Amino acid sequence: MPNRNNRGSAAGGGNCCDRQFDRAISADITRIYDSCADRDCLENLEVVFPADDAPLIESACSVKATNADILTAYVDVDEVSYNRGCYAVEATYYFTVDVDVYQPGSGTPDSMQGVCTFTKRSMLYGASGQVNTFSSADTATLPSSVTEPVAKVQAMSPMLLGCEIVNNQFPSCVQIPEAVNEAMGGDLAQNVGEKKIVATLGLFSIMQLNRAAQVTLPSYEFAVPEKECNAGSDSPCDVFRSFDFPLEEFFPLSSGTCNTCGCDTPMDYEGECPNAPQGNRQR
User: Is the dihedral of CA 269, 270, 272, 274 positive or negative?
Assistant: First the structure.
C-alpha cells in the first residue's frame, strides 16, 4: 500500500516526496509544570461498614481482607500565599475494602464491604497566570475564568498489607461524603459498637499540576489511517493459526539468566536469535 502520509513539502529544496516535515503549527496543549511520585504505607485505616454489619463485627473472632480498590478521589488545589507559583495539592482517596469475617465455631465467613479514606497533601510548582479565559464551550450564563492550574492524580489499586479487629477506644472521625455513602448503599455507620476493623494498604500514586499553554510543534501532515479495516475470518482455526507459537510457555527463562541470544531473550522456533542479522544468527 502506498504511504499516503509521506507528502512532504518542497520548502528548502530537495525532493518533496522524500520529506515528511511540512511546517510548524501552533497548538493549545496542557503542559505539566510539576509532578511527584510516591509510595505510601497507609497503616490502620478505619473501615466503615453499613449499620447492619455491626453485630457481625462485634461477635467476630477473626477477619481477613480479600480485596481493595479505589472508589473515588477528591482533588483540591490551594495557592500558597507566601510562595508565588506554588500550590498545595490535596487528594482524598476513598477505598473499598472487602473482608471475610469469621464467627467462633464457624468455618464459613460472612463477606462484607466497607470504605476507608486517606488524604495526601503535596506542594507543587504550577506557575502564575493572571489571564481570564472564556470559551464558547462554556454553557453557564456567566462563564467563570480559572487561573489556577489543574491538579491530576493517578493511583494504582492499593495493595492489601493487613487487616484486623481492634477495640473502638476513640470516637471515629472518618468523613464520608454523601456521594460515597450513596454509592455504598446509603447506610454507612460509625461508632456503632465496641469493635472496629482497620486495614493497612500500600498505595503508589503520581500527582501533577497542569496548565494550558500555547506551543509551536512540527507538522507531519494529517494522520491518515494506513491499515484497512478487516472484519476477520469466521473460521476459529484461521484465527488460531494467526497466533504466534508460545515458546516462552514451554521453555521459560529464569530472571537474570542469559543464553546465546542475550539476557532474557528466548530463541525462536527454529532455535535462532530473533531480530539478528542473517549472517550473525546463532544456534
Answer: negative
C-alpha cell at 132: 481570564
CB atoms within 10 A of CB 91: 19
Where does the pLDDT of residue 235 fall: very low under 50, low under 70, confident under 90, or very high at 90 and above? confident
CA distances from 179 to 94, 112, 185, 187 (A): 11, 20, 10, 12
Three cell numbers written together for 145: 475564568
178 and 101 in one domain?
A: yes
Give the Cα separation of 200 and 283 in Å (integer).
Answer: 51
What nine digits make up the cell of 59? 461477635
Show which of 165, 183, 215 is a domain's final residue.
215
26: three-class secondary structure by DSSP: strand
Residue 36 main-chain phi, psi, to 5 deg: -150, 150
Q: Which of 212, 31, 30, 38 is nearest to 123 (CA)?
A: 38
Between CA 225 and CA 233, with CA 230 as vertex, the angle to 5 degrees is 160
Residues 6+ apart with CB under 8 A from 141: none
Q: What is the dihedral of CA 74, 77, 78, 84, to 10 degrees?
A: 160
Range of the domain at 250: 236-280
DSSP result, 108-148: SPEEEEEEEEEEEEEEEE----------TT--SSSPPP--S
**Statement to judge: residues 108 and 170 lie in one domain:** yes
Give dist(CA 62, CA 99) in Å, integer.
10
- How many whole angstroms separate alpha carbon 100 and alpha carbon 81? 48
Residues 142-183: tens digit of each pLDDT: 655 557 788 999 999 999 999 999 998 887 888 899 999 999
Distances in whole angstroms, Cα of residue 168 to Cα of each of 28, 43, 56, 197: 53, 16, 15, 9
